[in-house]
Amino acid sequence: MYNLTDYKTIKQLLGQQDFHFSKALGQNFLVNPDICPAMAEQAGITQESGVLEIGAGIGVLTVELAKRAKKVVTLEIDTRLLPILSRTLADCPNTEVLNRDILKTDLPLLVQEQFGELPLYVCANLPYYITSPVIMALLESRVPFRAITVMVQKEAAERICAPVGSRGAGALTAAVSYYAEADYLFDVNRDSFMPPPKVDSAVIRLTVRKTPPVQVADEKYFFRVIQSAFAQRRKTAANSLSAGLGKDKQTVLSALEKIGAAPTDRAETFSLEQFALLAQLLGE
Ligand code: SAM
pLDDT at position 104, please? Predict the structure, then answer.
């Protein structure tokens, strides 16, 4: 077993492959020994679970997941890491490394092929350049993940976990809360990584809902309404919605009145129920 949070070990492993960290791929590897066990512990995984990880790196989190789960599948886009992973994960027979881009992966198919009927979880230290698309792809895939525990930039964690209808809320907050309940688990200092990024991080857990908290006839349009309402954060929701949806201002104002909102309200004050009603009122 390698000590994957030990600088000397990491340098040796990477040096043998002449590996250089890729900023573009969000490669900041965890070196704080407390973080991966805490993440794996709080992800809700049991010995009967299947776990999907995105971005194995050198496998520091993968090893912790493998200790607690029945099967771990980890996707890693960077081929240079594959020979390293075959060494660091040699003692984890319940782990499969796939050289894939998460955003080009058919998730329902992958899950069917790799996990069968196992109860499913996601646990990952996400590459930050694709935080929102990855989270939305996981949720929109309708794969019945029980929980998605991910490390993201602290700012993104605060945004995702803000209550819908509060100042900190954004389009991602509203979209995520349609699918899941978000909990802010703990902060992770930038010095916990090699190389250290310019920002701090945090771990959040999204517990996926069995049914959405509001009913919408057309999900696609519902998300378009949310996106449009938040698109121009400094503008009133009326202006933002009118521009984003291509509706005349009077139509939007009359819909806002019907949902109990003032003409000057901003999108961050709206509840999920209000967004659902707006989608119904403004829908084609
Ligand atoms: N899990 C490791 C850790 O905690 O130290 C590595 C985390 S690092 C922040 C993100 C990892 O995701 C990198 O290994 C990177 O190569 C990989 N990655 C980046 N983009 C990816 C993509 N589109 N699909 C799959 N993996 C990706």
Answer: 98
Contact 128, 152 (CB under 8 A): yes
Give the global pTM. Answer: 0.95
What are the residues facing 150 on neighbouring strands?
124, 204
Amino acid code (one letter) for 62:
T
At residue 234, the pLDDT reads: 82
Residue 54's pLDDT band (boundaries 50, 70, 90)? very high
The predicted pLDDT at position 210 comes to: 94
Q: Which ligand 1 atom lies nearest to the CA of residue 134?
A: 23
Contacts of 4 (CB under 8 A, 6+ apart): 10, 58, 59, 60, 63, 88
Residue nearest to atom 17 of ligand 1 (CA): 55
Ligand 1, residue 55: give the atom nearest the CA: 12
Q: Is 125 in the pocket of ligand 1 (CB under 6 A)?
A: yes
